Amino acid sequence: MLTPDQARDRAHDIVARAKAAGADAADAVFAADASLDVSIRLGKLEDIGRSESEDLGLRVFVGKRSASVSTSDLSSAAMDALAARAVAMAREAPEDAWAGLAPENRLLHGVPPMLGLADHGEVSPEQLRDAATAAEDAARAVPGVTNSEGGGASASSSVWALATSHGFAGAYASTAYGMSASVLAGEGGAMQRDYAYHSVRHRQHLESPEAIGQRAGEQAVARLNPGRLASGPMTVVYDPRVGSSLLGHLIAAIAGQAITRKTSFLLDSLGSQVFAHGITIRDDPHRPYGLRSRPFDGEGLPVSPTAIIEHGMLESWLLDSASARQLGLEPTGHAARGVNGAPGVSTSNVFMEAGTMPPETLIEDIVSGVYVTELMGGGANGVTGDYSRGAAGFRIENGVITGPVAEFTIAGNAKDMFLAMTPANDLEFRYGINVPTLRVEGMTVASG
């Protein structure tokens, strides 16, 4: 795999070729990835997969017309042909008044922050096999576990580079390691499935396979013999594993494209209270070893920690350059770019700050409620905020989490849910989006 410097030079080279072919401006992305994954089922090796890829994406501008092309053929002749084809396509494209590179005066200059995204270690297929086996063995050893969907372990490394014709060229490397186990408990039609996994940047930070497997097994057994909930209004408590999805609806609603197209249920909410007063939500691209950390955004702009929600108030849209121009605002450093097409918008390490009470205190006054550990289908309507999802979890009775329940739907409206939300104090950073245990009042539960 290329080094970050070599990847940056590749991206810079195709930009220069595009300019020579007649482009007024251009930017390019180079992305390379190598991954190895091993899966085990019932103690036997099921699959070993290895993949490698190198791809390059080029976007060119001729006036206000633009075109994007991509290739995995990185020969010099192919690069010249790619640049010429992109320019020819742009000349035939319709004009876009908002298209263009990021503002030159906003580009990142100097040395990007060091975020510890790559550990540069080596891992063998045998090491991954042993880890996957240990995770599955630990899950199968839990009393009540009767079958397995397998244990898995993976390792990958990647490099990502961006270059623009108006002065930016940067690149960075990253690694990722993962481990999982998925098992079933019970017999016949009464079987229940659950899983556990962990993903990190540095292998030394990975949970032990035994801990991951044991958690998967215990969670599967805990779901045996689920009952049914009565339908009606109810307090819903979200486990952190699934509560993060609620912030996904927020992020989609404040992304620049949703605002410019007027397709957001938060369209007129900037600067107003959209969450309960005690809630603060931040985006931290500089978090060391973060799963979504990055030193610059998809247009070459610097990134910095941002308060999206401060004490319940919506503080910012998430804008790339095109949506910012359309709204008459400044880009926020949230542009995201793949090798195909124009930039979109993406957050980095989003998290809701922890509340003040432990989960046990959060639920102790709930006479009848539900603790949700799994969500299925549905989501929030981007325009109206109407929310409906299938779910499974556990009853809350007189302040105590009791037996499992399944086959029910929870519904509400995202705007109402945000205002009726209370976080516990158990925030952990395990995913790309992290939340503590969340309590939401006034949901509607319908039993299947």
TrEMBL record:
Similarity field: Belongs to the peptidase U62 family.
Name the UniProt record assigns to this protein: PmbA protein
Phylogenetic classification of the source organism: Bacteria, Pseudomonadati, Pseudomonadota, Alphaproteobacteria, Sphingomonadales
SUPFAM superfamilies to which the protein is assigned, alphabetical: Putative modulator of DNA gyrase, PmbA/TldD
Stretches assigned to the Metalloprotease TldD/E C-terminal domain: 231-446
Metalloprotease TldD/E central domain location: 121-224
Species of origin: Sphingomonas aerolata
Membrane-spanning segments: none
Superkingdom of the organism of origin: Bacteria
Domain Metalloprotease TldD/E N-terminal, residue spans: 26-90
Gene Ontology terms: cellular component: cytosol
One MF term in the entry's GO annotations: metallopeptidase activity
Pfam families per UniProt: PmbA_TldD_1st (PF01523), PmbA_TldD_2nd (PF19290), PmbA_TldD_3rd (PF19289)
GO biological process terms on file: proteolysis
